[in-house]
Amino acid sequence: MSFSQFYPLQRHPRTGEPYIRLPAPYDRIIITPPRREDVPHIVAIMNAGPVKRWLDGLSFPYLECHGEDWVAQTKERSDTVLHELRVAEEEQPRGPLTAVSGCPVSCLRGVDDESDADVYLGAIEFSRCNFPDIRDRTEQERLVSRNESRKRGDPRIVWCVGYYLTVPLHGQGIMSCALRTLMQEWAVPRMGARVMRAETIIGNRGSRRVLEKLGFGRCDTVRVQKSKGEEEGCAVATE
Questions:
Q1: What parts of the chain have a pLDDT lower than 70?
Q2: 217-225 and 231-238 strand pairing
């Protein structure tokens, strides 16, 4: 059976963007590439207390310039993957499906089917792991260099996933469904992902529960020294 190299992406009838729709009962949520107009919504979500308390490595307050940088960088990565798919479509239009370097869709949007309008809800990002739990700098650099050198589709690549969701939708199973959908429909079959890691701050029960539902298990717990002198726990989970 042959497929378009863009499978299982669909094309948005209004914007022309690629997207993946979540299954019922969350089928009014789609995942698309980022848009410039997402920035104010991203800033509002990232600065909300129940979100920012569990985020590490970002500047706070999270400003519009930070959101603009994230959109630009994420859009560039999305465009790279879409280019890979276009090339594969020209060279192998009837398959087999080629492996690509990442996921072209990352932004969750709630869709009003009648008006075709949508609202930004959050994001999921896959990236090659930079092993933040490795405290020996030389060993960390060695692992990162080896991971970055793997060719796309290599099952030995260690991937990392991060995600966030607007506060009013916490605790409804949406992120578990969205992450499961992207892993089953894209990360595993299209990126060749076989090793996936995530880091959560100790105490972030919601994020931990998302990972547990998908079969992740805790593999390590490390203490990270923060700038003000406190120690912060980071649990590393892997599937």
A1: 1-3, 222-239
A2: antiparallel
